[in-house]
Protein 1
Amino acid sequence: MSIVEIFFSPSGTTQKVADQIASNFSQEKEICNLLIFKSAKELASDDVAVVVMPVFAGRIPKAARERLSKIKGNNTPAIAVVNYGNAHVTDSLLELVDLLRENSFNVVAAASTVSHHSIFDGVAVGRPDQSDLEKIDEFSQKCIEKIETNESLKSEVPGNRPYTDYKQLPFEISCDDSLCAFCYDCVSVCPEKAIPEDDPIETDLSICSRCTACISICPEDARRFSGDAFEAKKPAFEEANSERKEPEFYL
Ligand SMILES: Cc1cc2nc3c(=O)[nH]c(=O)nc-3n(C[C@H](O)[C@H](O)[C@H](O)COP(=O)(O)O)c2cc1C
Ligand code: SF4
Ligand code: SF4
């Protein structure tokens, strides 16, 4: 029996939430990082899945969905969490709960957690913070009780079907060639293969999902969001989403 942490975390906060939930369980941990894990996998009925996904334009990221679709349960208990940047959860949590149920997981509880916005870095700075982590611990303890008594999720989660359409954000990602050390870490991590293997300065914006993994992994801080659309949107977005939102839990 293992606690299987399944997450897609380009900038690291989603993994932080998954780690915090898993740390409440005493069993052995197994990590399934969907940025690098692409194979099929089946969990046993006595495993527990802690599944945490970031919110991308109101959905779970397409690449994460495709990879998660290959992971099947056997009536395996699952905790379903979406991690968002203090703006909107939209249909992402419903989508995640639906997908896990389709894949034979028994969803026992669900949550939306708030983390630092990975594009607009003035939003939700420092989150998840101590208060968030304490609430996540309380939720995890309730999940443990529900798993012991073999209960399922009873509450409705927010969201509508059909889910909102996927949106590709219009922002550019640029690379400063004077900073790049040609380590190719960005090429390896990119889930969309949008950075040419022989030229890490370039990004194919027609296939890039703006996931932020390349920006986050770059040891030289060479990659960033840029361009007129991004600069124009940033102040208004940060102002509109400056009020603190709290995590929500569904049992
Ligand atoms: C492409 C993209 C779209 C996003 N869309 C939303 C959104 O619809 N609502 C929101 O609140 N945050 C949104 N965010 C912010 C992320 O959900 C949030 O920062 C999350 O913590 C990122 O997880 P990570 O640190 O594991 O990458 C978006 C981020 C990206 C990169
Ligand atoms: S190039 Fe785009 S899709 Fe690839 S890692 Fe960077 S942001 Fe993500
Ligand atoms: S991760 Fe950064 S330093 Fe390494 S190749 Fe990519 S842009 Fe250059």
Protein 2
Amino acid sequence: MNEDYDISKESGRVQKVEPSLIRTVLNRVDELRKSGHEIVALSAGEPDFNTPSDIKEATINAIRQNYTHYCSNRGYEKLRKKIAEKTWGETGVLYDYKSEILVTSSGAEAINNTILSVIEEGDEAIIFSPAFVNYENMVKISGGVPVIIHLKRENRFGIDIREVEEHITERTKMLVINNPNNPTGAVYDRFILERLCELSVRHNFIIVSDEMYSRLVYDDAGFQSIASFPGMKERSVIINGFSKTYAMTGWRLGYITAGEKRINAILKIHQYSTTCSPTFIQIGVAEGMDTELTKKEISAMMDTFEERRRQLMKGLDKISGLSYVIPKGAFYIMADVSETGLSGMEFAKRLLEEKHVAVIPGVGLGRMCSDYIRISFAASTEHINKALERMNSFIRELLKAD
Ligand SMILES: Cc1ncc(COP(=O)(O)O)c(C=O)c1O
């Protein structure tokens, strides 16, 4: 027996990661609300819409019919067929529902299991920063080394291929992209994606493409899946899900599309983590995801996001001391607050405590983003207007105090 062993000690794997700053902000919002404050939250990455009615009804029916038992580890067959059809329609890539699609309990699980299935001790994964926090942390948990490339505002948070090449080594096993991007709103064009595909072939690494926001694109931006480039279906793993595009964050349903061998590897981890995603949810989604009513509801939601994006940009344009890169996808704006004299962290903290508006400090998404805050436009028109008014008065008071 090892008497020195501290039974409450975290494993080395856990010690490598920090709690997410986004959660810290959301917890503070909860505290303030509980103590009676009216908080305008432009912090969360979730649509404020209701889940499509047909999905809700079909799920309730599935429970009533006692579909409350385990189902196939890969996911309910009809749902996999529907995902294959949807992916074909949206990207032109044909995945076999029998072997090339895995249903997961959220996009987050899809990311975690994918990274765990690829990365070994000492392997390198190229990650662009700022980024959704899970990529870097899961690479660390897997024993790998996140190789961070900092995206630059001067380049509209775009990817510089030469810089990518400079970061590739013998140990590069994976490159992660998020297209459309949280938090920058970038949508990568054909030219950049082609170059990344060439690098994947030349240096023999896999591309993990998180396409959670694939249907949320604006203006002239055209979304293209990395898997749609020649030979890339086998060299990529695509992460997707229902949280953002079907307003289903609390349902925890995601999926992965990839070549058969990779899916089988990820399946082993999925099997030992969640076994399968809840059966009645999978049935409800399979039955309700493509009805005429659902299509109408989703399309109205997309139109509303587009209106809110314009509303938020118009409002921000009128506030001196803030600047931003126009987002072409997803539902966030990264705003530079450096002209106010505050860091993004101080700005976000004071805005929350003094004006009761919640946004995310940029450093929570990327070390080099200390001048930024992330503002989400997945909030009602009323809340966006209120937040803009309060932000405006906060900055006016700040600049006057100078
Ligand atoms: C880029 C990106 N990927 C994945 C996820 C995870 O989505 P979920 O776990 O809700 O399916 C999120 C959520 O914020 C995200 O922004």
